[in-house]
Write a structure and sequence with these properties.
The complex is a heterodimer of chains A (288) and B (578).
Chain A: H1 21-34, E1 42-46, E2 61-64, H2 70-80, E3 85-91, H3 92-98, H4 100-109, E4 114-119, H5 154-160, E5 165-170, H6 174-186, E6 191-196, H7 208-214, E7 216-217, H8 229-238, E8 243-249, H9 256-259, H10 277-285
Parallel strand pairs in A: 1-2, 1-3, 3-4, 4-6, 5-6, 7-8
Antiparallel strand pairs in A: 5-8
Helix pairs in contact in A: 1-6, 3-4
Chain B: E1 4-12, H1 17-30, E2 34-40, E3 49-57, E4 68-73, H2 76-82, E5 86-95, E6 109-113, H3 115-121, H4 128-140, H5 148-155, H6 160-181, E7 199-202, H7 203-213, E8 218-221, H8 228-237, E9 244-247, H9 251-263, E10 268-272, H10 274-290, E11 294-300, H11 317-322, E12 331-333, H12 338-355, E13 358-364, H13 365-369, E14 371-374, E15 427-429, H14 443-456, E16 466-469, E17 475-482, H15 486-498, E18 503-508, E19 510-512, H16 516-524, E20 526-533, H17 539-548, E21 554-558, H18 567-575
Parallel strand pairs in B: 1-4, 4-5, 5-6, 8-9, 8-10, 10-11, 11-13, 12-13, 17-18, 17-20, 20-21
Antiparallel strand pairs in B: 1-3, 2-3, 2-14, 7-14, 12-19, 16-18
The chains are: A alpha/beta (288), B alpha/beta (578).
Bound molecules: thiamine diphosphate, iron/sulfur cluster (SF4) and magnesium ion.
Protein name (chain B): 2-oxoacid:acceptor oxidoreductase subunit alpha
Domain Pyruvate/ketoisovalerate oxidoreductase catalytic (chain B): 14-175
Keywords (chain B): Oxidoreductase
């Protein structure tokens, strides 16, 4: 059986020392091993950004696509092979700015994949512009006088879009994060995991210390019940979204795969590509 | 006796104009006539003038006819908009209900027929279309029993009584008109057809069926005119073979999902029109550099922007060849008949996998929505070839080594593995990469990978890249076209020949890479070249000049008013060249 070391490849990440994404990478590798995957059974699809490089740093099938489109690519991969474990990943700009449309629709479509967002409240790769996750007033290269737009609340947004698995974590909480990714992989449907993953180079506000001070662990809230959607929403609002842990999970709603009529039980990639003549004759007869 | 008839029915959108044409056409198709139907419609659901022009012939026709024999009008607008097409012996049959009047400058005859009244008397005004079919039969002296089968199929579900009522309506229309015509019954009697059973379908049906036959098992798409029929057909048929269609949130999602599924090993299609293709451009480049097979249909319509969304145009050519930033190998094909749309779509999946690049099937509104008689499709001609897709067990990789998915090979095509395959792990990225897919900015690697990618299509194998009808060793005129202009060009060519002009015809089926070797000899041996296309700038003419030179011979014959070419227009424009 594969261990997390089998999910390491020999490529050295080009992230800045201290970047939060290192821990996300480690957690992903551990989670993959913990759920019993072999490297070839995992496909990691990523977007463009510092975080988007992650698919190149994991020993598995990896697809580094275009900015904002990791989700539709990942959903296509999953539709092609329902036996694969598919993880989509990328930055907050990737998922909540250019790719926001896909995020909402992936949530409501509920295809059985896991989406990990490395949320650093900034555009790292393009060297420090505002992101839809930057707080109002946040000064960046593109908002020198401070952002005058409201930050997106991705967890609340996910709940309203009908998400069946919503979780948030902090990259230094390696154990919790690993467990959440495992739970996300096992969840039958779309799982969204937003990870606070500090950018040590361009975000001097939302630092490791800042998160330590401001985050509340749901496990510290007595009696928190992740199956209660209404309470999940209230908790998010109360804490301004700054909570970590499993926020909400609906285990009853079937995944997209289970609902598609006629969808092949075995991977579609193994489907017979030929039709028999008799079936073909039936098709053409409709046009006589 | 006539061997060809042109019939048009018109009225307000949503009045059942389509089904009238449909019933008339299907019945005649079953008698063995060749048909060509073209719908004029606008971008709204109810209201607005619509018409369906159907040409009936004892030989193959693939163009709208120049003139009109019979016009069935459900409102005055239909008469006003269309009467000029009628020749002097033409007949207008209009619903008496709206008090039709005949414009002064036509010799065609007008019959006010109480379509609605007769239908209402028989039960419901909805059947006015049936009365019109019956009236038409009188002019053609057609046995109305030929409609029985079709009426049965269409209304059978609603019960035998409905079927009978509709047949009664046809009969009543026939009898009313017969009396009106007197000795003119059968004034336009058609020669008997051969009785052969052929298909009658639109290009989009053929594209969708071609995809199914070609092994396509998944589609991701976003609705748009005139492409939606492709997804609508496939969502009906794919579940039976384990596949499905996802209607995505937009075209970017559609194309990237298609890329993901193709990467995952499933033959996947996406289809759209210009606006959608514009959105897909970045992803087409991703398919190019990651060498992920991809089949995309572009059903061209009037552009730019929303342009003329329900009208014919061929103005996406340059965008399809060159669209996407940077440079990638790409294949662009342009079927010119419905039949060919079937075979070409099936073949597109082979090319996409063999050359591991995007393949664009270019269609146009006239081809996608025009309904033609099609000779029976030969399924045995459809092959499944998957190129260098690896099967079976792969050799063990050294620890942590990646599979050389982008190995530099002689023909440029690298072995391909798909997720799930043991020992096939590699990285895929839109960043320039080395043989295992890892990002690389090395200059030598860049050149090696660029050259490798372009080598793939430098020797592309493609059956009949140009349809040549070249009876002359030395021609006065070479006519060049692509997609749906073929039918009108062929008819114009016959007339030019009768005028004594020696004409060769080349309909370009493989647009890119441009089939220089096939076309150059025809260009060299022609005194003049007329490039026929539905756009304002002469895109094919420019591509022709760029690839084969001889610019001084090339004349652009352009039409960009939203309507397809008529044979007489091509005929007269070409004559002007002499
Ligand atoms: C279509 C397109 N627009 C813009 C860019 C430039 N770009 C690359 S990454 C990026 C944003 C990165 O921010 P984020 O997604 O938060 O990732 P991070 O680098 O912070 O991990 C931008 C704007 C691009 N690659 N493609
Ligand atoms: S710039 Fe920021 S996000 Fe990018 S690698 Fe460096 S620390 Fe990480
Ligand atoms: Mg970011």
């Amino acid at each position: 059986m594969a261990t997390f070391k089998d999910f390491r490849n020999n490529v050295k990440p080009n992230w800045c020392p201290g970047c939060g994404d290192f821990s996300v990478q480690a957690a992903m590798q551990r989670a993959a091993a913990n759920v019993g995957l072999e490297p070839e059974q995992l496909a990691v699809v990523s977007g463009i950004g510092c975080s988007g490089r992650i698919s190149g740093y994991i020993n598995s099938y990896g697809f580094h696509g275009i900015h904002g489109r990791s989700l539709p690519i990942a959903q296509g991969v999953k539709m092609a092979n329902r036996d694969l474990t598919v993880i989509a990943s990328g930055g907050d700009g990737d998922g909540f700015a250019i790719g926001m449309g896909h995020t909402i629709h992936a949530i409501r479509r509920n295809i059985d994949i896991t989406y990990i967002v490395m949320d650093n409240q900034i555009y790292g790769l393009t060297k420090g512009q505002t992101s839809p996750r930057s707080a109002a007033g946040f000064k960046t290269k593109s908002t020198p006088a401070g952002s005058i737009e409201q930050a997106i609340s991705p967890m609340e947004m996910a709940l309203t879009a009908g998400a069946t698995f919503v979780a948030q974590s902090f990259s230094t909480d390696l154990k919790d994060l690993t467990a959440l990714i495992e739970a996300g992989i096992k969840h039958k449907g779309f799982s969204l995991i937003n990870v606070f993953s500090p950018c040590v180079t361009y975000n001097k506000v939302n630092t490791y210390d800042w998160f330590k001070e401001n985050l509340t662990k749901l496990s510290d809230i007595e009696g928190y019940d992740p199956s209660n959607r209404e309470n999940a929403m209230q908790t998010l609002m109360k804490h301004d979204g700054l909570v970590t842990g499993l926020i909400y999970q609906n285990t009853e709603r079937p995944s997209y795969q289970e609902l598609v009529s006629g969808y092949s039980e075995k991977p579609l990639s193994e489907a017979d590509l030929t039709l028999d003549q008799e079936y073909f004759d039936k098709l053409t007869a409709e046009f006589v | 006796m006539i061997n060809q008839l042109s019939w048009k029915v018109g009225g307000q959108q949503g009045e059942g104009i389509e089904s009238t044409g449909e019933i008339f056409a299907i019945a005649l198709n079953r008698l063995g006539y060749y048909l060509y139907g073209y719908r004029h419609f606008s971008s709204r659901i109810k209201g607005g003038h619509t018409n369906n022009k159907i040409r009936v012939s004892t030989t193959q026709v693939r163009s709208i006819s120049d003139d009109l024999d019979i016009l069935v009008a459900f409102d005055q607008e239909t008469i006003d908009v269309n009467y000029k097409e009628l020749h002097s012996k033409g007949v207008i049959m209009a619903d008496a209900k709206f008090g039709p009047t005949k414009p002064e400058d036509t010799e065609a005859s007008l019959y006010a027929v109480p379509f609605t009244e007769i239908a209402t008397e028989l039960g419901t005004s909805l059947m006015k279309n049936m009365v019109a079919i019956g009236a038409t039969s009188a002019v053609l002296d057609l046995d109305i029993q030929v409609f029985e089968e079709v009426v049965q199929e269409i209304f059978g579900r609603k019960g035998q009584q409905v079927v009978e009522k509709n047949m009664e309506a046809i009969k009543a229309g026939y009898e009313y008109m017969k009396e009106q015509l007197g000795s003119n019954v059968g004034a336009m009697e058609l020669e008997k057809a051969d009785g052969q059973k052929r298909l009658f379908m639109i290009g989009n049906d053929a594209i969708a069926m071609g995809a199914l036959a070609g092994g396509c098992r998944f589609m991701a798409a976003y609705p748009i005119t005139p492409a939606s029929e492709i997804m609508e057909y496939l969502i009906k048929k794919l579940p039976a073979v384990g596949g499905t269609v996802i209607q995505t949130e937009d075209e970017i999602a559609a194309v990237t999902m298609a890329i993901g599924a193709n990467y995952g090993g499933v033959r996947t299609i996406t289809a759209s029109a210009g606006p959608g293709l514009s959105l897909k451009m970045e992803a087409i480049g991703l398919s190019g550099i990651t060498e992920t097979p991809l089949v995309i249909v572009d059903t061209q319509r009037g552009g730019p922007s929303t342009g003329l969304p329900t009208k014919q145009e061929q103005s996406d050519l340059m965008a399809m060849i060159y669209g996407t930033h940077g440079e990638i190998p790409k294949i662009v094909m342009a079927p010119s008949t419905v039949q060919e749309a079937f075979y070409d779509t099936a073949e597109a999946f082979n090319l996409a996998e063999e050359y591991q690049c995007p393949v664009i099937i270019l269609s146009d509104l006239q081809l996608s929505l025009g309904k033609q008689t099609v000779e029976p499709l030969d399924f045995s001609k459809v092959e499944i070839r998957r190129g260098k897709l690896q099967t079976g067990e792969l050799p063990e990789l050294e620890s942590k080594a990646y599979f050389k998915r982008y190995e530099v090979t002689e023909d440029g095509v690298s072995p391909r593995t798909i997720p799930g395959m043991k020992n096939g792990i590699h990285h895929v990225t839109g960043v320039e990469h080395e043989e295992t897919g890892k990002p690389s900015e090395s200059a030598a690697n860049r050149i090696a990978q660029m050259d490798k990618r372009f080598r793939k299509i430098s020797n592309i194998k493609f059956d009949t890249p140009v349809h040549k009808n070249a009876p002359h060793e030395e021609a006065d005129l070479l006519i060049v076209g692509f997609n749906s202009t073929r039918g009108a060009i062929e008819e114009a060519m016959d007339r030019l020949e009768q005028d004594g002009v020696k004409v060769n015809h080349a309909q370009v089926r493989l647009i890119h890479p441009f089939p220089v070797d096939e076309i150059l000899p025809l260009v060299k041996t022609a005194k003049k070249i007329a490039v026929i296309e539905n756009n304002a700038t002469g895109q094919l003419a420019n591509i022709l000049k760029m690839n084969v030179g001889h610019a001084e011979k090339v004349h652009k014959v352009l039409k960009y008013d939203g309507n397809p070419f008529l044979p007489h227009e091509i005929h007269s424009k070409c004559k002007e060249l002499f």
